[in-house]
Write a structure and sequence with these properties.
- Helices cover 25% and strands 27% of the residues.
- By secondary structure, the protein is of the alpha/beta class.
- The chain folds into 2 domains: 173 residues, Quinone Oxidoreductase, Chain A, domain 1 (Alpha-Beta Complex), CATH 3.90.180.10; 126 residues, Rossmann fold (3-Layer(aba) Sandwich), CATH 3.40.50.
- Strands 3, 4, 5, 8, 9, 16 and 17 form a 7-stranded mixed sheet that branches. Strands 12-11-10-13-14-15 form a 6-stranded parallel sheet, sandwiched between helices. A two-stranded antiparallel ribbon has the order 1-2.
- The longest helix is centred in the C-terminal third of the chain and has 14 residues.
């Protein structure tokens, strides 16, 4: 008897996701078949759905997957049926290019990305490379763990690139920032949250998580920043953030897509200020962060949606109506 699965499929850029039914895939060598318990809704999914990131179509989005192993291909030592795993954005790296050989698999020349170049977690089942899956700490339930798989992981890589300075600015207080703020506060940093101008609810949310200050992106914080991390995909924020960091400060652009950065005076960059992007993640980032998040007592704030309402979850993200992160739950009706 052929088992069937459900998935929300993107057929073309800008089109609504379509509910499809298909046979449950068989895992190949080195692969796991995962029954999806929860899948976070990431801004990258929005960029894919809206066509800002061009990739193969049709595709099943979703790369913040938490589920349980139901079948294993050959050569998948380290996992067993019933294990709970997380499946992140980086689904596989080639292992042969100069970047992979140099310990920079996040820059791999021939990668596979979950939910972008390989079907992802907006589904009841997904296949994943066992080497790129993570055990999920027991401290987290399925739903609260899902946003950690990208919002958390990319935020952690961005924080490492931001350096050890004690005065940190976060632009765009959504899924990633609300996780990262908790980590940074736990580390003893003073976190300054920048939201859409006038978004008092988001500012109150930031303060409730321990942020020292919260205001609009058009406002000046009470002190110069050692670093600023931009999660909002608005290039116009880069020159603004440069004006808020001290000499030698860093501006980290954490998204995979951003609107064009407008021109700005060289004087705003001078003083050895730096602008740097974040590209994907490494498996080492994932192991470090999941362990740290459990020790830091990170708690994600989520809004649950049934799998069939994936478009509604994306719309809520697009319109800024979420506090924290949206999570799709296949079993929710």
């Amino acid at each position: 008897m052929i088992r069937r699965m459900r998935a929300m499929q993107l057929d073309s850029a800008g089109a609504p996701l379509r509910s499809v039914e298909r046979p449950v895939p068989e895992p190949g060598p080195g692969e796991l078949l995962v029954e999806v318990a929860a899948c976070g809704v990431c801004r990258t999914d929005l960029h894919i759905a809206d066509g800002e990131l061009a990739g193969p179509r049709p595709i099943v989005p979703g790369h913040e997957i938490v589920g349980r192993v139901v079948a294993l291909g050959e050569g998948t030592g380290g996992f067993a049926a019933g294990d709970r795993v997380g499946v992140p954005w980086l689904g596989r790296s080639c292992g042969a290019c100069a970047y992979c050989r140099g310990g920079e698999e996040n820059l791999c020349d021939d990668p596979i990305f979950t939910g972008f170049t390989r079907d992802g977690g907006y589904a009841t089942h997904a296949v994943a490379d066992a080497l790129f899956c993570f055990p999920i700490p027991q401290a987290f339930g399925d739903v609260e763990a899902a946003p950690l798989l990208c919002a958390g992981l990319i935020g952690w890589r961005a924080l490492k690139l931001a350096g050890d300075g004690g005065r940190l600015g976060l632009y765009g207080f959504g899924a990633a920032a609300h996780i990262l703020a908790q980590v940074a506060v736990w580390q003893g940093r003073r976190v300054h949250a920048f939201t859409r101008p006038g978004d008092r609810d988001a500012q109150a949310f930031a303060r409730s998580l321990g942020c020292t200050w919260a205001g609009g992106s058009d406002e000046a914080p009470p002190e110069a920043l050692d670093a600023a991390i931009l999660f909002a995909p608005a290039g116009a924020l880069v020159p603004q953030a440069l004006k808020r960091v001290r000499k030698g400060g860093r501006v980290i652009c954490a998204g995979i897509h951003m609107s064009d950065i407008p021109s700005f005076p060289y004087a705003d960059l001078w003083g050895e200020r730096r602008i740097q992007s974040v590209a994907n993640l490494t498996r080492a980032d994932g192991r470090e962060f999941l362990d740290l998040a459990a020790r830091a007592g990170v708690r994600t704030v989520t809004t649950a949606f049934p799998l069939a309402e994936a478009d509604a979850a994306l719309a809520a993200l697009r319109e800024g109506r979420l506090e924290g992160a949206a999570v799709l739950i296949p079993g929710l009706r």
